[in-house]
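note to self — DONT lose this again. spent like an hour looking for the file last time. sequence + predicted structure for the chain T wanted, 424 res
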Amino acid sequence: MDVVAGITVAVVTVLVLVGGAVVAGFVVLFRRRGDRSVAASSSAFGFGSAPLGDLSARAGSLLVQMDDAVRKADDELGFALAQFGPEQSRQYGQAIALSRAKVAEAFRLRQQLDDGTPDSDREKREWTLQIIALCDQANTMLTQQDAAFAGRRRLEVSAAGTVTELRATVAAMHERLVATRTTLARLAAAYAPAALSGVSGNPDEAESALTEAMSAVDAAAPAITGTGVSAVSATLQQASQAARRAEVLLDAVDRTERDLNAAAKALAELREAARSDLVEAKAERDTAPDAETGRAIIDAMAAVDRSLAPHAGPTDPVADLDSIGAAVSQLDLALASARNQADRLSHARAAYAGTLVSAASQIAVVRELIGSRGGTVSARTRLAEAERQYALAQVETDPVAALDTVRRAVTLAQDADALARFGD
């Protein structure tokens, strides 16, 4: 199973690296086609004269379905690799990459519809039709690959080995489950409950998934013969998916530990930087060019002081990063007229590091939340835009612009989390 997992990680890594180029090329191609693609979509799907409200509802429904379908396809790819190897699974991986690109472009269009910029009725209709077309194209590709692998599975004869491997995997996961519970207990002693809310129930959910996996394996085993397999592929797939779900849940706890440790380190650095900012702010306050500027600096310094005040009991370093970051941002604005450009860039770099950690952690929490519990199209749209802003921030060469961009990613991730937990 370790070999299979290694292959899966390698394939998925390649898809992620290629995905950005695929999305960019796809967006350029789609935009070059312009109105012709919209007209084709209208004609092909019979939506040219449909009410905009009906189109929007269908587009939203399709986005949710395809976002789930692409997530499910990632798990399916891992199972396909285990059964048939990387060569036979290559076309499936390519179809997933292109489908993900189409869904990402559809989410980008949905974000344009959801943002605060007014859009004309013609733009709304065109973009909504494009979303529908993109989702249908992605669905066609994934459906074709699903059908192809369903045929292969009917012919596969290695179910006995799969059962042995799954039993070993479940046993290893049960051992890991004990370590994960210990990890979570350690984290609960060090961090506030809010910091662990996304993974606190993961061990129990993982144990339930492992029970499901073993039940499916036990149900399939009696039907396996020495000469072939009859109607057990679906059951074994169910077992594999349940085991994979347990692995993801346990991985999430490990990821949370890494993120919280990184956040705690970033928080210590940000606290130190904020204290240095206060020293500088005192000098700027005493030499402020006017009373209004001086008052703004004094108010911002007070906000930073409040954010740096120690907490009683376990803390949430991610929340503290956000709190201090917001206060420092206010101080930045107050000092903007007094701080020279070199200092602004240096401070932006320091604030960027902590904010980037916060953004990564919050995006990961929302991604796992939607993956395990589902989510509205609005939540998924905000998540997709948060991921896009996070990626843009990492390649932005201007430190000030990069900080602004990653702060937008944090805000979008927070919005997505709220929408995923409580709905529109």
